[in-house]
Amino acid sequence: MSEITLTIVKVLFLALLWLFILFVASVIRSDLFGRAVPSADGARQLQTPDRPRRAKRTKGQPRVMTITNGPTAGTQAELAGGTIMIGRGADCQLLLDDDYVSTRHARVVAGGENGVYIEDLGSTNGTYVNGMRITAPTSITLQDTVRIGKTVLKLET
Amino acid sequence: MSATDNPAMVTVVPRKRRTVEMFLVLFASALSLAAYAQVDLNVQGHLPTNLTLVAVIAFVLPLLAHAAIRWRVPYADPVILPCATLLNGLGLTMIHRIDLINDPPSTGATQQLLWTVLGIALLIVVVAVIRDHRPLQGFTYTLGLVGLVLLLLPLVPGISSGDVGGAQIWIHLGPLSFQPAEVSKVLLAIAFASYLVEKRDVLALAGWRVLGIDLPRARDLGPILLVWLTTLAVLVFQNDLGTSLLFFGLFVTMLYVSTQRPGWAVIGLVLFAAGAVFGYFARGHVRIRVAIWLHPFANINESYQLIQAQFGLAWGGLLGRGLGEGRPGLTPLARSDFIATSLGEELGMAGLFAVIMIYGLIVSRGLRTALACREPFGKLLAAGLSFSFALQVFLIIGGVTRLLPLTGLTTPFMSQGGSSMIANWVVIGLLLIISHQVRRPVATTQDVDPGGELIFERPGQVSDSEETQAIPATRGTGGTADDDQPTQIHVRGGHR
């Protein structure tokens, strides 16, 4: 190849290399500033998948575990999945940020014949149902209060 | 009440940007292929005979990874994969170019391609099988122990490869040789992250205060001293300045990120300085590295490689000699430690800076993921992985360009070597799954209606800028980052 072609190819390649970087930068830029989305889109996406779930729901059955007292009051986790892990670990459905809570503290199991029950997973500071420390899986109803560390939890419909 | 007439509902759909990723991947593959063709055109005077085969490989491999991402982690960051693809492609091209110097050409690029295939396969496994980084938190001590053992494996007599190029960092199992520290890097990053998430409170709060620095309790300090001693052992017995520095830097940074105490950075730097001074006086190896960094021309025999690399860079100049037109073969180990200067010679400063820029883009996306992450483990893991990636690039490219004393680290995705290649693809895989978990839409149910009717809303946002803006609104002022951990995640039909 002649000297001039070589130089052209060389510079062209470098330009393309930097063009790639510019493309990536523009993707990042558009990511930073977000995008306006027609609200109908979002509404449709939110609406459709939830209808069957609502239809199936029966009144009076515990549906969620709610934190009623404590730093994260108001947080809920659904029982529909069968099991809720409670603790400080990131894989817990109910994540309690509390020094008195173990990484995997307790487990709530629903869906069996015995209704909903809670089980302590060998935590350091224990799980209390209505003020009593539990030693075995204990069934809980809508009326019971569960305390873990500084957090109070209840079943709710 | 239906979801549509709830005024509080935020209607921002996440941007998956998978198609953008596909185009960028195609662009990266095309660039790599162009580089490959250019090398053969310049060195041999004709297009490579196996161009079609190489083209198929260059396009199919990253597209497979892209397909896996589209399938399993559709919300993952769109620019990480294309950047890694381009770096890998340029690295392969450069190794192929150095192969051509020998007559007959050596087969380094083919071997490296096999490792790339394995690396991308591992990425696909990480993305498709692990998919969520959170369960990894359960293996703190197992991963930590395996990581430390791997790190010290090159010291075990039967399998150690002995002293290679001044450092004892290789093991051999049968015909295969392996650099276990690279794999150990990933394992230890995960282990450190989950350990620190568990202990961050005691590390930050419990303990005594000395000279304005919060020191932790002795029993919390144990694992940290263990890491420090291990890295010191790596320095002293394996003679490996780079690995030792990389691991210690990784650990100190993660400590700092998790506890947010500058005191840790100070302790880390003091411990590092103590280790470095000790290394300097105890090991001739470190002394030589420092001497050839400061005075490369004082002892040509010791610093031959470094001097050749500097001449290469100078010969490359601003725009480089052109691919295939330089003489990178004059530098010993041009295809592994010194691949950055080989690139600098043939692509010039413009090309080398582009490469560094691409590394920077990967790191910035990793740190962005860490910033946006709502739970501490993912945050710490993403920060640790991207920081170690950045530190490694800084140490090796700084070393070969004589900004720092030369440390024998690998250039991620570029230098020849299988362990580094697969470890870095796993790092990319982990960053992708964390970013998927971070960016995907989460929905919490909140019973705000007294009648018990469900209202769905989206607290943490989706396309990520809104996310950062939305977090202060949903989080209590005194809360920590994990307060607004999604309590549950609905599978929304159709787009997952």
Q: Could you describe the 3D structure shown?
A:
Chain A: Keywords: Phosphoprotein. The complex is a heterodimer of chains A (157) and B (496). With 157 residues, chain A is α+β, with helices and mostly antiparallel strands. In chain A, the strands form two sheets. In chain A, strands 2-1-11-10-7-8 form a six-stranded antiparallel β-sheet, with no helix packed on it. A five-stranded mixed β-sheet of chain A has the order 4-3-5-6-9, with no helix packed on it. In chain A, a hairpin with a 2-residue loop joins strand 5 and strand 6. In chain B, the strands form three sheets. A two-stranded antiparallel sheet of chain B has the order 1-2. In chain B, 63% of the residues lie in helices and 3% in strands. In chain B, a hairpin with an 8-residue loop joins strand 5 and strand 6.
Estimate the strand proportion of chain B. under 5%
Instruction: Please list the strands of the largest sheet of chain A in the order they lie side by side.
Output: 2-1-11-10-7-8
Task: Output the structural class of chain B.
Answer: mainly alpha
How much of the sequence lies in strands of chain A comes to: 25-35%
The helix count of chain B comes to 15
Task: Report how far apart the termini of chain B are.
Answer: 26 Å
Mean pLDDT score of chain A, rounded? 77
Extended strand count of chain B: 6
Can you count the helices of chain A? 3
Strands of chain A, total number: 11
Give the helix/strand class of chain A: alpha+beta
Q: What would you call the quaternary organization?
A: heterodimer
**Which sheet architecture does the biggest sheet of chain B show?**
2 strands, antiparallel
Summarize the biggest pleated sheet of chain A. 6 strands, antiparallel
SSE sequence of chain B, one letter per element: HHHHHEEHEEHHHHHHHHEEH
Binned, the helix content of chain A reads: 25-40%
Unreliable stretches of chain A, pLDDT < 50, 5 or more residues?
38-57
Overall body shape of chain A: rod-shaped
Report the mean per-residue pLDDT of chain B as an integer.
81
